[in-house]
Amino acid sequence: MSADRHHTEDEQDPASQGPLDVEGHPIRDEAQRAPVLPGAAEVAQRPSRTLWGDAFIRLRKNKLAIAGLVWVVFVVVVTLSADLWVPRYFADPVSTEFAGLESPSADHPFGTDRIGRDVFSRVIYGARVSLAVGILAVSISVLIGLIMGALSGYYGGLLDAFVMRTADIFFAFPYVLFAIVLLAILGPSYRNVFIAIGILGWPSIARVFRSSILSVKENEYVDAARAMGASDLRIMTRHILPNAIAPIIVYGTMSIGGAIITEAALSYLGMGVQPPTPSWGMMLSEAKALMGPAPWLTIYPGFAILTTVLAFVLMGDGLRDALDVKMKD
Amino acid sequence: MALLEVNNLKTQFFTRDGVVKAVDGVSFILNEGQTLAIVGESGSGKSVTALSLMRLIQEPQGRIVDGEVILSGKDVLKLNDSQVRAMRGNRIAMIFQDPMTSLNPVFRVGFQIGEALRVHKGMNREQAAQRAVEMLELVGIPNAAHRAKDYPHQFSGGMRQRAMIAMALACDPDILIADEPTTALDVTIQAQILELMLEMQQRTGAAIIMITHDLGVVADMADDVMVMYGGRQVEYGTADHVFYNPLHPYTWGLLDSLPRHDISEKGELCPIQGQPPSLIDIPSGCAFHPRCPHAREICRTSVPDLKEIEPGHRSACHFSSDPRFRRTIAASQPGREVR
């Protein structure tokens, strides 16, 4: 083969003999360099960055997304470490040993509630419920939604019609009402809140993933993979999924915020987490009669819900921009 | 025995508007190491023919309704799904038109080239990666070991098509189908890619089926040429036959519509009048008759058979065997030399 001729195409000939640098690339001085377009050499030697690497770099530039990320990490760390310090320095979240309705003080930074529980420790432990519901319920939705959306988008036809009409049925009911009905059937409990929210969330995920797959599977590299002899499973998991997953990551992150709100709403209505487990929604529900005389009962859990949900949404928003290759600068 | 023998292949698509007869009775023979060019306008059934050979027709809308595709004695159309997968990429490989979209953007180029080897040859990642680098070197990618770790967006169009060729040839297939491999590339790169394909053919002995509407490409590469129109074969012969002694008026039209600086000083182009036919509603008789300047009554009423006019040279025109007809045409076409 006349190798030389081909090297004229895009760049200089790096296979030339010569000393190598530490990474094994040939070192050349200016005089040796073949006549190339300015910049071509740098392009050729640019280190490979992955799609995710690029996305991370873009994400880092988005201050709001980073603020969201920092808040989420903060909440997670505080919550996970709560057992180590909250009962010791403040109070146990379920003990009723204090005087009721004390306003915030050094002993009780967020005050106490009607039956003498420390609000600070309940807000902190309440985050456990919120985060657990947010993450686990969304994981359930994403798992079901991915499978349904993949089958629907990849195979099309009758299967697609069946899955999408099922999703439409789910959409036809008001969300919270449907959740209440499900919890009424399953019985209100910590575990059933996950299940109810998880089951209700899959149709949106399936829809988003389906449309994403529909556009990805038209790409020629999917045809190329099929022509190469890849099986359906391989095409789906190797070639379609990684290219279609970005919207799900974004949507899933944002859904965590939504799931936290739904949990709070359900607990507020008494259909969610049962006392004495602390939950932000339930705290708000208990505080509603005392909003005037004891505003701290409403403000702190309310603030906790607001900031945490906002943090997840900002993070999702930032991820959407970061994963959008068209935004490449 | 011929490497690939296609008999009376018929592929149809069942749409709401009717049955699209995309390929309507195509037959040809491909020997080892040979290059066959399939030529025709858009929508003449070239690509569908190729996809049918690989059993890549999207079901249930599309179906191969009749015919045989015999690869080394076995009918491809009778294989089950896993046998078909074992054939694809391994015995018959394919290069697609647009190299910008035929590589998966999320995988490194070397990994993608190695994929076929892992699927068909049971290689592990390291072996496949090593072989991928060799393949990239073979197709003239400089600094292949380094470039194999690049992502497709770091490759130029020409390099990507080289990578596609490397991928297609990784498993050393018997047949390489190239579906307009140079259409999306600029002219200088086109020439390089064609040259590379010829070079690779000499090294690996693969037979090539080249689908194109560019007669220049055909003249460079092909041993045999099949001209398709409206899903049917209208002319089949060696490249010399088709270029120097074309028998079918459609082939004349194709050749006349090429810009030629050596014949006409003024360089005026002679396009074929009219539009390619709808494959749902193929014209009666000879599909080309509405656009054929020489059409007569018989062309409207009866479908011409593909007849062997001279050894190895077949044409589907009622008048191909009539020497007077050919002379008249030659005279009425200024600039065409009569042989």
N-to-C series of helices and strands of chain B:
EEEHEEHEHHHHEHEHEEHHHEEH
Chain-averaged pLDDT of chain A: 79
* Alpha carbon gyration radius of chain B: 21 Å
* Helix proportion range of chain B: 25-40%
Number of strands of chain A: 0
Helix-strand string of chain A: HHHHHHHHHHHHHH
Task: Summarize the helices and strands and which ones pair or pack.
The complex is a heterodimer of chains A (329) and B (339).
Chain A: H1 3-6, H2 40-45, H3 51-60, H4 63-80, H5 82-89, H6 119-155, H7 157-172, H8 175-186, H9 190-216, H10 220-227, H11 232-244, H12 246-268, H13 280-287, H14 296-323
Chain B: E1 4-15, E2 18-30, E3 35-39, H1 46-53, E4 62-71, E5 74-75, H2 81-87, E6 92-95, H3 109-120, H4 125-138, H5 144-147, H6 157-169, E7 175-179, H7 187-204, E8 207-212, H8 215-221, E9 224-229, E10 232-238, H9 239-244, H10 249-256, H11 297-301, E11 307-310, E12 313-315, H12 323-332
Parallel strand pairs in B: 3-8, 3-9, 6-7, 7-8
Antiparallel strand pairs in B: 1-2, 1-4, 4-5, 9-10, 10-12, 11-12
Helix pairs in contact in B: 3-4, 3-6, 4-6, 6-7
